Amino acid sequence: MTPATRAARFSVAPMMDWTDRHCRYFHRQLTRRSLLYTEMVTAPAVIHGDRERLLGFSPEEHPLALQLGGSDPAQLAEAVRIACGFGYDEINLNVGCPSDRVQSGAFGACLMRDPALVATCVSAMADASHQAGGPEITVKCRIGVDDQVPAVALRDFLRIVSDAGVARFTIHARMAWLQGLSPKENRTVPPLDYALVHEVRRENPALHISLNGGIDTPEAAAGHLGDGFAGVMIGRAAYHDPWTMLSGVDERVFGAVPRGTTPRDVIAAMVEYVERTGAPVKTVGRHMLGLFAGQPGAKIWRRYLAEHMHLADAGPHTLLDAADAMTRRPVPA
Predict the structure, then answer these.
(1) What is the per-residue pLDDT for 124?
(2) What is the pLDDT of residues 85-107, one digit of tens each?
(3) Beta-carbon neighbour count of residue 167 at 10 Å?
(4) C-alpha to C-alpha distance for 212 and 141, rounded to whole angstroms
(5) Which residue range forms the structural domain that includes residue 310?
(6) Which tens digits make up the pLDDT trace of 291-316?
(7) 158-183 average pLDDT score
(8) The domain spanning residue 269 has which CATH number?
(9) Do 67 and 41 contact (CB within 8 A), yes or no?
């Protein structure tokens, strides 16, 4: 079992504009064992863009998966060859994003309609990764799109794509409605169908299937793992309430010895990170706004950061000042 497969028992979803390298470094202070994902990067961007900006990461982020978007097998294979030089632990193909940009490029959730093309893409990606000594190729998908019958579409998709060599899937247990719903609505409006994903998991015991969608408490994650899923993937809940969702994962899910880390320890680590990398505090601090969610002083922490991290004199001290503000003033009514 690869490090990424072991870590996939609990993963943080790829989220556009959120899971950049600063966010991932922050999350890594909370969980050392979980699998982290990059934002989706398109294959043409990898081929033609600033590769260090798009693909670079800190060694501390391992185990780390790169998510690629695309539908051209040759482009995806070239992007994989390039990405292999960066040392990712997994490369994932996006077959679930419903955004207008993705639809216009004929990839993401649109590909649920063409599992044969997905099979061709992942086969080309796997060949390129093997030749470069790279990682496993995986797929993140929906249960179907638009007028598809999920019970049929998902089964056909898994059969055809797994026959092409993919053994690990993350399934977002919602349909994607590409007409009539925004990308935001597609994350909440189509009803979840955990039962269907449970059925296909039982029907495909050789596949490693992780469940995604609507998992917003540690108890819910533990329940799905207890029901037999090989993994769970957490999205927005991990971003908005990272301490609750991530700080106990290593002990609960992976059996690690408790490290005794506190939120203040996390802040100290991020201060060191900003000092060492020179990253603007506003680009780091925005990912930390939810660190104290649900805890006394959370409003003060969030308000202080939001008001001060964009100022000209903001720096590593701003994170410390925000923590100090929690002890100096009462929580606003």
Answers:
(1) 98
(2) 999 999 999 998 877 665 556 77
(3) 15
(4) 9
(5) 263-328
(6) 999 999 999 999 999 999 999 999 99
(7) 89
(8) 1.20.120.1460
(9) yes
Please, what is the Cα angle at 45 between 43 and 47, to 5 degrees? 70
Residue finishing a domain among 221, 252, 283: 252
Known catalytic residues?
Answer: 97
| Residue count of the chain | 333
| Alpha carbons 7 and 59: distance in angstroms, whole number | 16
> Residues 9, 94: one domain?
yes
Q: Model confidence at 331, in pLDDT bands (50, 70, 90)?
A: very low
Extract the tokens encoding 34: 């979980």
297 and 210 belong to one structural domain: no
Could you say which DSSP state residue 49 is in? S
For tokens 């929580």, the residue is 331
CA-based end-to-end distance of the chain: 51
Q: Based on the domain organization, do 247 and 149 belong to the same domain? A: yes
In the block, tokens 């002890």 appear at: 327
| pLDDT of residue 290 exceeding 60 | yes
**Count of domains for the chain:** 2
pTM score over 0.90: yes
In DSSP terms, 171 is beta-bridged to 141, 211
Does 156 reside within a domain? yes
Hey, what long-range contacts does 292-296 have (CB within 8 A, 24 or more apart)?
Answer: 292/243, 292/263, 292/326, 293/240, 293/241, 293/242, 293/243, 293/244, 294/241, 294/244, 295/243, 295/263, 296/326, 296/331
Q: Choose the final residue of a domain: 252, 287, 302.
A: 252
Inter-residue contact 174 to 192 (CB < 8 Å): yes
pLDDT digits (tens, 9 = 90+) for 41-51: 999 999 999 99
